[in-house]
Q: What sequence folds into this?
C-alpha cells in the first residue's frame, strides 16, 4: 500500500483561474492526469478554484477518475462575492473543511496563486494543523512580467512581491528547469536543499507515427497568440521557401489571442497558407501533432513550454528559437533543431531541410520521443513531485520540532 503523505492536499489554482477556464484552453484533462497521481498519495484533495457553478460538473468529472471520488472537494466562489473577498476567505474556508489537527500540504499550481497559498498555510499553522507549503511554478512569473510589462511596471512589482513572499514562506520550492531553480535560489536566498526541479511532463504514445504517414508540409505552432510568441517569423519563413516547397507547406496556428488579426493580414499579404484554429482539447491537440511534420516555436522566451514537450513526445520534429526556456529542451541534430537567431531565413532553412528529408524527419522525431519518455514521461515526473511533497512534509515537521 502506498504511503499517505498527509491527510489533505490543498491544490491552489492561480488567482482568476477556474476549472472552466482550464478546460476552455485545453489544459484541464492534461494536467489532471498528473495531479490525480499526486491526489492518490493524500487522504483527500481540496481543489481551490476562482470559478463559479460551472466548475462543479468539471470537478465531478475529475473526482470520478480517483479510486475514491468523495476524496476530491472543490472550493469555489459559491457565495458569489467579489473576487478579492472570496480570495480573502479561502484560508478560513479551507480550515473549515479539515478535521482538527489533521495534516495538510498546500501546493500552488503556479506562483500566481501565492497570496492565497501563503495565507492558508499561515492560518492552518495557527490552528495547530501540521502543514507544509510547496511553492510550485511552471515559469518565473516575475521575469515574465518584467519582460512583458517593464521591470518597474506595477505588474512586475506585484509579481515580485507575491513570488518573494511565497518562496520565503515555503518549506520547499519547485521549478521546472535547473536554470529556473538556480534563479529562484539566488533571488530569494533559498537553501538549495529546499528546492527541487520537477519538469513539466509529456504523454508519449507507444507507437510514433512515421514521417510517411504524416501530413506532408504541415507545420504546427500553438499557444496564446501574443507578441512574445513571434508567430510572424514563422509566416515570413514559409514565404522564403522555394516555390514548390512553399506551395505544399501549411502553417497551422492553434490558439487565440490579440495578434490574430495582424497575422491574418500578414499571411494574406505574403501568400502563405495559414490555418488559424481555436484552442483544442488536449487529446485533439495530440492528434494534430501526430500528423504534423514540424512543430515550430519562435518565442523570445518561455518557461518550460508544454506544447514543445507534447510535440517531442509525439515525434513531431521541433524547430525552436534558441531562446530562454527553449534551448534546454531541444538538442540540435538529435531531438530537433534550435535556430540560432530569430531571423526568418534561419527558420526557412530548417523547415526546408526537414520537409525534404523524410528519413531525417523520422530519425529526429523517433529520437526525441525516446528521450522524452525517459526524462519527461508522466510517471517519472509524478514520482519526482511525490518525492518533493514528502520532503516538504519532513522539512515542515523538523521546523515544528522543539529541537529544530
A:
Amino acid at each position: 500500500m502506498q504511503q499517505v503523505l498527509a491527510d489533505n492536499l490543498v491544490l491552489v489554482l492561480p488567482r482568476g483561474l477556474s476549472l472552466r477556464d482550464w478546460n476552455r484552453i485545453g489544459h484541464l484533462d492534461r494536467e489532471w492526469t498528473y495531479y490525480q497521481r499526486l491526489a492518490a498519495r493524500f487522504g483527500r484533495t481540496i481543489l481551490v478554484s476562482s470559478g463559479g457553478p460551472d466548475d462543479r460538473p468539471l470537478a465531478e468529472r475529475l473526482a470520478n477518475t480517483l479510486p475514491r471520488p468523495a476524496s476530491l472537494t472543490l472550493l469555489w466562489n459559491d457565495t458569489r462575492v467579489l473576487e478579492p473577498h472570496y480570495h480573502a476567505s479561502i484560508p478560513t474556508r479551507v480550515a473549515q473543511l479539515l478535521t482538527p489537527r489533521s495534516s495538510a500540504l498546500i501546493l500552488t499550481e503556479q506562483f500566481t496563486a501565492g497570496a492565497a497559498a501563503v495565507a492558508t498555510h499561515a492560518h492552518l499553522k495557527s490552528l495547530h494543523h501540521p502543514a507544509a507549503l510547496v511553492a510550485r511554478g511552471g515559469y518565473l512569473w516575475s521575469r515574465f512580467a518584467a519582460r512583458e510589462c517593464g521591470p518597474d511596471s506595477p505588474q512586475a512589482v506585484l509579481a515580485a512581491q507575491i513570488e518573494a513572499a511565497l518562496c520565503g514562506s515555503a518549506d520547499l520550492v519547485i521549478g521546472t528547469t535547473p536554470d529556473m531553480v538556480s534563479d529562484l535560489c539566488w533571488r530569494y536566498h533559498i537553501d538549495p536543499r529546499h528546492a527541487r526541479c520537477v519538469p513539466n511532463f509529456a504523454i508519449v504514445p507507444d507507437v510514433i507515427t512515421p514521417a510517411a504517414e504524416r501530413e506532408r508540409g504541415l507545420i504546427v505552432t500553438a499557444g496564446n497568440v501574443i507578441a512574445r510568441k513571434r508567430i510572424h517569423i514563422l509566416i515570413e519563413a514559409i514565404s522564403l521557401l522555394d516555390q514548390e516547397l512553399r506551395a505544399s507547406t501549411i502553417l497551422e496556428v492553434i490558439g487565440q489571442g490579440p495578434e490574430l488579426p495582424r497575422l491574418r493580414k500578414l499571411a494574406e499579404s505574403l501568400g502563405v497558407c495559414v490555418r488559424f484554429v481555436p484552442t483544442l482539447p488536449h487529446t485533439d491537440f495530440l492528434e494534430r501533432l501526430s500528423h504534423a511534420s514540424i512543430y515550430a516555436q519562435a518565442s523570445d522566451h518561455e518557461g518550460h513550454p508544454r506544447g514543445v514537450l507534447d510535440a517531442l513526445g509525439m515525434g513531431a520534429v521541433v524547430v525552436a528559437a534558441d531562446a530562454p526556456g527553449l534551448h534546454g529542451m531541444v538538442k540540435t541534430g538529435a531531438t530537433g533543431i534550435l535556430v540560432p537567431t530569430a531571423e526568418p531565413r534561419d527558420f526557412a532553412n530548417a523547415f526546408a531541410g526537414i520537409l525534404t528529408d523524410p528519413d531525417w524527419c523520422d530519425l529526429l522525431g523517433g529520437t526525441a520521443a525516446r528521450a522524452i519518455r525517459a526524462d519527461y514521461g508522466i510517471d517519472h515526473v509524478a514520482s519526482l513531485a511525490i518525492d518533493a511533497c514528502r520532503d516538504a512534509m519532513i522539512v515542515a515537521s523538523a521546523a515544528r520540532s522543539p529541537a529544530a
